[in-house]
Amino acid sequence: MNFGRGPSVVLNVGGTRYSFSREVLKDFPLRRVSRLHGCLSEQDVLEVCDDYDRERNEYFFDRHSEAFGFIMLYVRHGHLRFVPHMCELSFYNEMIYWGLEGSHLDYCCQRRLDDRMSETCTYYAAEEPKGGPEGKGRRPPGAEGKKWLERMRRTFEEPTSSVAAQVLATVSILFVIVSMVVLCASTLPEWRAPENRSVEEQSRYTAESVREPSGIIEAICIGWFTAECIVRFIVSKNKCEFVRRPLNIIDLLAITPYYISVLMTVFTGENSQLQRAGVTLRVLRMMRIFWVIKLARHFIGLQTLGLTLKRCYREMVMLLVFICVAMAIFSALSQLLENGLDLGTKNKDYASIPAACWWVIISMTTVGYGDMCPITVPGRILGGICVVSGIVLLALPITFIYHSFVQCYHELKFRSARYSRSLSAEFLN
């Protein structure tokens, strides 16, 4: 700290005093407290706290003392929970004031906060530095550029954050729909007729396909998606985090096959390689189906599904374990009863345990294609037990997944409502 004297400082929060050394304040977990270390004058100090006593080197904060006590428990032990008998929103307001976020709360308290915020549609923003109009004149160098980048980032990442973002999202959705229509139409027999041509004609066709209307439309769509992905990468805050995001990986998987197919068409020369190249090109073109997942960027329903799967991976793994254990048991028993016992009536469909696994999975999920069925009485009894067990085992984790889905939906709906309010303010302005 460059202001004040003495080896220690005192924080007075709502009448409760806390003493710290100056070096501790430098890397203090609470952002507002750590800002005291860089204060150069009394005016800078008063922008952080409510009052200051130079003689005792004491800083006064007119905040909830009990809430700050729980926040200090988080600083010491790493666990942050709500104050008993205190409103969750009020405590969250105290957290925002001291520089914490909802992610710092323990998981149970995060769920309470999400439920409460979704019910009241309340949004707390981090406090802007004090100073009013005077502060605006003292913007640090590069603030305008950062503000422009942030606005661009929100335009591309949050479809409801502004009018421009909504227009951009609408155009992107139209391109996705057009590309999907072209992909579906390309599988029609009339469109697939050129595939039956000879090798020489096929070579000439692949070279000319880009100039056809479908190839032009595909190239335009790919150009739009590529430009959108590049701009979003440029304006992103953290480039490494941008590359690791699932939706961005899907965008890359949807765009890359087109360029690979073009390069293969250009460099695949002669007849000996054309057959293998044709199969590879068809596989790469079919990977355009990943463009449908791009709609998750613009629809809350698909975002909710992805977030639910992310948060419920333990329940999903538990569901898969249930199914695998049941498959191992019922497939072995069914193979034994239908084919293993030499009773004169062997069911060839159950010749092996892997073959019986197919019957188990379609029975447990109550699909029942009918392509395999037991013919012995013990096998049919086992089939009935398998169906009932499947219904019970599949229903056990559904409750947890359902509650997580509802929570994720309210959370994303609340975030969308927050940006809608900012959009309404933009219309009013």
List keywords for this structure.
Voltage-gated potassium channel regulatory subunit KCNG3, K_chnl_volt-dep_Kv5/Kv9, potassium transport, Four Helix Bundle (Hemerythrin (Met), subunit A), cytoplasm, ion transport, Potassium Channel Kv1.1, Chain A, mainly alpha, 429 residues, Helix Hairpins, 3 domains, flat
SSE topology:
Elements (H helix, E strand, L loop, with lengths): L7 E6 L2 E6 H5 L4 H4 L7 H7 L2 E3 L4 E4 L3 H13 L10 H11 L8 H14 L11 H5 L6 H15 L5 H23 L3 H4 L6 H10 L4 H23 L3 H6 L1 H22 L3 H16 L13 H12 L1 H28 L12 H12 L12 H19 L2 H31 L1
Parallel strand pairs: 1-4
Antiparallel strand pairs: 1-2, 3-4
How large is the share of residues in beta strands? Answer: under 5%
* CATH fold label of the largest domain: Four Helix Bundle (Hemerythrin (Met), subunit A)
**What is the CATH superfamily classification of the largest domain?**
Voltage-gated potassium channels. Chain C
Domain count, please report it: 3
Side by side, the strands of the main sheet go 2-1-4-3
> What general outline do the C-alpha atoms trace?
flat
Query: Which radius of gyration do the C-alpha atoms yield?
Result: 31 Å
Query: In which range does the helix fraction lie?
Result: 55-70%
Could you walk me through the main structural features you see in this protein, from its secondary elements to its overall organization?
- With 429 residues, the protein is mainly alpha-helical.
- Helix 14 packs antiparallel against helix 15 and helix 16 crosses helix 20.
- The radius of gyration is 31 Å and the shape is flat.
- The chain starts with 7 loop residues before the first strand and ends with a helix.
- It has a four-stranded mixed sheet with strand order 2-1-4-3.
- Helices cover 65% and strands 4% of the residues.
- A hairpin with a 4-residue loop joins strand 3 and strand 4.
- The C terminus is likely disordered.
- The protein folds into three domains: 119 residues, Potassium Channel Kv1.1, Chain A; 124 residues, Four Helix Bundle (Hemerythrin (Met), subunit A) (Up-down Bundle); 100 residues, Helix Hairpins.
- It is a multi-pass membrane protein.
- This is Voltage-gated potassium channel regulatory subunit KCNG3.
